[in-house]
Each structure stands twice: as structure tokens, then as C-alpha cells.
Amino acid sequence: MKVKLLILICIFSSLAQVYSQVKVGDNPNQIDAASILELESVDKAFVLTRINTAQMNSITPLNGALIYNTDDNCIFQYNDNSWTSLCSGNDDQVLTFDPITNILTLENGGSVDLTSLINDPDSDPTNEIQILSKTGNTITLSNGGGTINETISTLIDNGDGTFTYTAEDGTITNIGTIGAQGPTGAQGPQGDQGVTGAQGPQGDQGVTGAQGPQGDQGVTGAQGPQGDQGVTGAQGPQGIQGVTGAQGPQGDQGPTGAQGPQGDQGVTGAQGPQGDQGVTGAQGPQGDQGVTGAQGPQGIQGVTGAQGPQGDQGVTGAQGPQGIQGVTGAQGPQGDQGVTGAQGPQGPQGIQGVTGAQGPQGDQGAQGPQGDQGVTGAQGPQGIQGVTGAQGPQGDQGVTGAQGPQ
Q: Do residues 117 and 140 make contact, with C-beta atoms less than 8 angstroms apart?
């Protein structure tokens, strides 16, 4: 910018030295003989220096200097060591009269002594001041008292973007419109963030939207370490036994899994004496099964008792070889259920057979009434926070709003 200004000054200086006159714009070879500088254009404007009030007051130019004040949006003229706005349309001044000195004074200078007119020694009242009036630029004293010419400068809006300025001496100057606004400067650094205001009251909860479709089930995470076993609560009373459903057909025997390594044989405990076998009573006829009574309300869950210390686990004995399972015979009809005799002592546990395939699931029974809610257990430790997901792409920048009034 400084280089362009320097080049422009050099051009003007060279033109002034050669021709003593400068014509800028259209018809550069046509200039009035009395002009030192002329501007001519039908699509461009002459733009005055644009400064604010503080910058204007810091300048002391020659009388007649003009600037455009950006604070007042007006053209100012410098004259007699002060800047004067040209946007008021005239330079109306306050006219004051001192009845003691008989001096009539204009605000920005100029006065007249009216003593000779007021203190006229003769008795004729017609040659004394009675009315002071103003018409146009002339202040008139009635009854032939005389007149005072007041000069006025004006700035008229021509309605086409230009202004006509008439100085106090009658000189007329045409002023063009202000040029197009220059490009917006770079944005300054962002200021510090203000203090966050107090949080407003929580609004009413909106209506719950319709439930969206269930997403695909995520991959099952690795199983965490098993926590300590909780204390076993006291066993509640056994409910009434429901009707036994028909036995489903036995599934095919699954293949025998590979045998794991044999553990060390534990010490065999001493076998207790076998009790005498009770006499089996005669089997009576089976009575009709009674109607199942309504399920009673679930009792309040008792407080979980303290867990006793876990005993040492005995050494697991060596597992014997598993025998070949025989073919299952056809199931005979179920006989009437006899009276259950006294239970004899439990014999040694036999080798566990291969688990058969699970039969089809029976129909689900009606849901019983909900029991009282148990005491809420202590909250477990918070899990490790998951990894923060990658940040999504930045959205498009919104449209810049219209610029407000200046």
C-alpha cells in the first residue's frame, strides 16, 4: 500500500512539474485553465480521508481542510482552529443581546453596538428599535433601525448520492458519494471466555420417542475374573410341587468327550456301618392328586448370614475307567406311586453317566405375584472407563449472518 501511494505521489509531482495542472479520471486532456487539480468520472467517486473524532482532533491542518468523520458519519471542515460539522444543513448561531452594554453578538463572532439607536436623544419613537427580526440571511431592526447580514454555509443532499456544499463566501462545491466499503480486516484474537452463568431450572421431560429397532448384538467381551462367592442366604420353604409333565423322548447319546488327565487319588475315608434296611410296607392305591393351591405371597427375604470359613478341599481320588453304557430298554408304563418308605442310608455314589440331550422345553407357567424387593446390596467398584471413540468429522460451517447496521 505504501509503495502504491509513493508511486501515485511521484506521478502527481511529475505532472505538476511538467504541466502545473493535474486532471484525474475521464477526459484527462480537458482541464479548465483556472484549475490546478480536477477529478472527472461518471462511475467513480472522490472519497475524503476517513477518520474518527479522536484522530480528527489530533490534526491541525490549513483552513478549508475536509475530512469524513466515521463516528458522526459526517463531513467536517477545519476553520479558525476548530472543526465544524457540515451535516446540520446550516450554521445557525445563537444571537444574544446585552441590555447593559446594548451589544448584539453572534455566537461564532461578530457584534454590533446598538447604543446610538436605543438611546436616541430626540423624542421621536419611530427612530428607535422596537422589533428585531430575521429574514433569510438578514437581521432587520424595525422602524429604519438598520440591518445586519449573517452569512450561512449549507450542505444539501442532492438525492443521487452527491452533496452540494455552499461556503460562507458563496463558493459552491459538489461532493461525491462515499466509496464502497473496503474488505473486512482479519479477525482479532478471541477474548477470554466469560464466567459460566448459573444453570437454569431443568425443563419438563419430553415425551419418550418410539423405541428404535434393536441393534446387532455386540461381540461378547472377554470374561472378567470371577469375584468372591457371596454368602449363601437361608433356604426358603419349598413350594408346592407342580404337576409332573409328560416325559419327553430320550435324545441320542452324545459322543463321549476326551478324558482329562487323572488326578492324584485322595485318601479314602473310613466307611460308616450300613444301617439295617427297613421293611417295605405294602403299597396302597394311589389317591387322586389334589388341586394345586394358590401360591402364597413370597416372604420377606431374610438377611444373608455371614459366610463361614471355607474348609480345605480334600484330595480328589483317582477316577476309575468308565464302563460302556448299555442300551436303554423301552420304558414301561408308569405304575401307581406307592407310599414312600423310610429313607435308608445313602449308598456310595456311582459313576456318573453321560448327560443325554436336553428335551424340548415345556410351556411356561403363569407368573406368580412379585415378591417384596430385597435389600439393595452394596454397589460394586466402578469398572474401567472405556477407550474414547475417534472424533467424528467436523460439520460444515454455517452461513454467515447479514451484517448489522454500522
A: no
- In angstroms, rounded to a whole number, what is the distance separating the alpha carbons of residues 62 and 81? 9
Q: What is the pLDDT of residue 185?
A: 75
Segments in 20-156 forming alpha helices (H): 53-57, 115-118
Residue 76 β-bridge partners: 67, 85
Q: Which amino acid is at 404?
A: G
CA dist 16 and 22 (Å) reads 6
User: Buried (b) or exposed (e) across 119-143, using 16+ Cβ within 10 A?
Assistant: eeeeeeeeebbeeeeeeeeebebee
Instruction: Note the pLDDT tens digit of each residue in 243-254.
Output: 677 777 787 777
Q: With a cut of 50, which residues of the chain have pLDDT below it?
A: 16-17
pLDDT of residue 2: 56
368 neighbors 239 (Cβ within 8 angstroms): no
Question: What's the rounded Cα separation, in Å, for the pair 114 and 102?
Answer: 5
Question: What is the distance between the alpha carbons of residues 31 and 48, in angstroms, rounded to a whole number?
Answer: 22
Q: Which residues pair with 77 in a beta bridge?
A: 66, 84
Answer whether 0.70 is exceeded by the pTM. no
Residue 116: phi, psi to the nearest 5? -65, -25
The per-residue pLDDT for range 132-176, each reduced to its tens digit, is: 566 655 666 555 555 555 556 677 888 777 888 877 777 888 876
Compute φ and ψ for 125, nearest 5 degrees.
Answer: -75, -10
| Model pLDDT, residue 79 | 94
- Residue 45, amino acid: A
CA angle centred on 184, ends 181 and 190, rounded to 5°: 150
Looking at residue 89, the DSSP 8-state letter turns out to be S
Query: How is 1-25 classified by DSSP, letter by letter?
Result: -HHHHHHHHHHHHHHHHHHS-EEEE
Contact 22, 12 (CB under 8 A): yes
